[in-house]
Specification:
It contains 11 helices and 29 strands. By secondary structure, it is α+β, with helices and mostly antiparallel strands. The protein has an 8-stranded mixed beta sheet with strand order 7-20-15-8-9-10-21-29, with helices on both faces. A 5-stranded mixed beta sheet has the order 25-24-28-26-27, with helices on one face. The protein has a two-stranded antiparallel sheet with strand order 1-2. Strand 26, helix 11 and strand 27 form a beta-alpha-beta unit. The N terminus is likely disordered.
């Protein structure tokens, strides 16, 4: 018997309203008292290869969203809390026509039958994850206008870069006791989540909060609608890119892009409550400890061995920095990566995907915990992104940390600086969309074929440096790149027939070299000198007249003369990383 029939509709658990129709094998949402007469029954089943996921009818007619079983109710029904009531003239499916009539009892039952794919969207960072977003949850999502900090969208054939920010702002019930209650918050936990263009793998790059870096000038939208420019700062902690001086997540996005050279599409931000509510909604996150821990600061109190954490203890686990390793923020990052890997496995588990109750709880918790940029500020936009991410296997999700060194300017080591020997090749790999995880060869066959075709451009003879003619323009590199590159080519490489044409007419993300077929030997020689990948070479179709220079345009990926643009195929030795499918004990 459902909650409505017991007269306790105000206490109804939405998951309890979904029952299987024994005639169709599909889940239906029972909204009226007559539902008590229907068998409620079975465990979730798979329909057409995916979980028959409950989705609520939209508030307006949208025929492409649901499949309905229309019926004419004998009397008005009262929707359960949180369930939108269809408008007059609409069925539960928002006006979709051609639905199949229910056999028997048509006037006494109103059903909403939903058939189709589960929505798998892993939101990492501070700890975010969610499945199955509903139209009526749109109002839960908080948005920020980042004023052009992101690319505001993503393309099907391009990588996706999402900045996941965990703020230490003490908002939410029970969080004021953690101290620093009046702080506007910082970028306390930050991941740059890079999804490959073929959607087979992802890299989550942790950025240490104590990293010394530069924060660029950033425009912010004020409550009155005006724009305020926050001045740049040099040589400050990375975590001050958010909250401090009035900075919003757009400032953190700009800082990360300047720091890594990786364009950021969107951001997702969560506070302490996200860790507590999401870990509880999923039924707890499994963790393993090598030793017993009792940390007075984070309030983590656990014995050695395996535990399933939710709520306050889950938050304590990701906050502790005195329990594991050498008690530094870098070791806390490792603990957070282990926790998030476990949460991803839990979200992907059969136990979660087959539990309507968990899915409902996660939908509520995730949307209430999220703060996003305006480009992702609706369920439909999040759903589109979810569709891009849902097929990634946890074994192909790699967590790693931006390589750093102790700050040599400090006697007492409190901050860190980038380790260029390891960081540069690692960032090149991410910019070049090279996975840190071994992926099945068959999944890469098409890409390998395309790369082989491109590599053919580099096959053949090379012209002497003295015969290379090229004009250089700057289309996105650091200021003055065209002139410094010209000087480097002439003085270090002997390319004396080169010229500087200043700034390019348009910005480019990638460096390109345009040349004619009869200049191929010059192009290969220049590619060798500069470390240009085959993808940077853009051959024309017609031969060029004698003494015509090639055209080199430096893009946003250009970091300086003599710095190779060809991404390494393996991570530098010593770079910390862990795959999301691996269970690791905190030490």
């Amino acid at each position: 018997m459902d909650a409505h029939s017991r007269g306790r509709a105000e206490e109804v658990d939405p998951a309890d309203q979904w029952v299987i129709d024994p005639r169709t094998g599909n889940y239906e949402l029972r909204l009226d008292r007559s539902a008590a007469q229907q068998p409620s029954l079975a465990s979730p089943r798979r329909v057409r290869g995916s979980f028959a996921s409950p989705r609520l009818a939209p508030r307006s007619a949208r025929a492409d969203r649901t499949t309905t079983t229309p019926a004419t109710p004998a009397s008005p029904t009262t929707p359960a809390p949180g369930v939108p009531k269809p408008r007059r003239g609409e069925g539960a499916g928002g006006g979709r026509r051609g639905g199949r009539k229910a056999a028997g009892g048509g006037g006494r039952r109103k059903g909403l039958t939903v058939v189709g794919g589960s929505l798998a969207f892993v939101l990492v960072g501070g700890a975010l994850a969610g499945y199955l977003y509903y139209d009526h949850l749109n109002g839960n999502i908080k948005t920020t206008d980042t004023l052009g900090a992101g690319r505001n969208g993503f393309q099907k054939d391009q990588p996706i870069n999402i900045l996941i920010i965990g703020t230490d702002k003490r908002t939410g019930d029970g969080n004021q006791g953690y101290g620093d209650s009046d702080s506007p918050g910082h970028a306390d936990t930050t991941f740059l989540f890079h999804v490959s263009k073929d959607r087979t793998n992802a890299t989550a790059l942790s950025i240490p909060r104590d990293l010394i870096t530069n924060i660029p000038t950033c425009p912010t939208k004020q409550p009155d609608g005006s724009t305020k420019n926050i001045p740049s700062q040099r040589g400050v902690r990375f975590n001050t890119s958010l909250g401090q001086e009035g900075r919003d997540p757009g400032c953190t996005m700009r800082t990360v892009q300047e720091l890594t050279g990786i364009p950021v599409d969107h951001f997702l931000m969560a506070d302490f409550n996200a860790v507590k509510t999401l870990s509880t909604a999923v039924g707890g996150v499994p963790v393993c400890l090598d030793k017993a821990v009792k940390d007075r600061d984070s309030k983590l109190d656990l014995t050695a061995g395996e535990h399933r954490l939710d709520g306050e203890q889950a938050l304590a686990f990701v906050r502790t920095r005195h329990s594991f390793g050498n008690e530094s923020d870098l070791d806390r990052i490792k603990t957070q990566q282990q926790f998030l890997s476990s949460m991803i496995r839990e979200m992907k588990s059969k136990e979660t995907l087959s539990s309507p109750k968990k899915l409902f709880a996660l939908a509520e918790a995730a949307t209430k915990a999220l703060s996003v940029d305006k480009g992702m500020g609706s369920i439909s936009q999040l759903t589109a992104l979810a569709g891009e991410l849902k097929g990634i296997n946890p074994k192909n999700i790699t967590f790693t940390t931006l390589p750093v060194l102790d700050n040599p300017a400090e006697r007492v080591k409190a901050t860190v600086v980038i380790n260029p020997g390891q960081a540069d090749p690692l960032l090149q790999m991410i910019r070049g969309d090279v996975s840190l995880t071994a992926v099945e060869q068959k999944e890469k066959a098409a890409e390998a074929a395309a790369k082989s075709k491109q590599d053919a451009l580099l096959q053949g003879g090379r012209a002497p440096a003295a015969d290379v003619r090229v004009s250089v323009t700057n289309g996105g590199g650091p200021q003055g790149s065209a002139s410094t590159t010209l000087a480097w080519l002439q003085n270090s490489k002997g390319v004396e027939r080169s010229s500087n044409l200043g700034n390019a007419p348009a910005k480019l993300e990638r460096t390109t070299l345009e040349y004619a077929p009869n200049q191929a030997d010059q192009a290969r020689a220049l590619a060798d000198m500069m470390g240009l990948p085959a993808s940077a070479l853009k051959p024309g179709t017609a031969d060029a007249p004698p003494k015509t220079p090639m055209k080199l345009t430096l893009g946003a990926d250009f970091k300086g003369a003599g710095i190779s643009l060809t991404a390494p195929q393996q991570a530098p030795e010593g770079v910390q990383r862990v795959e999301a499918d691996k269970a690791v004990c905190a030490k």
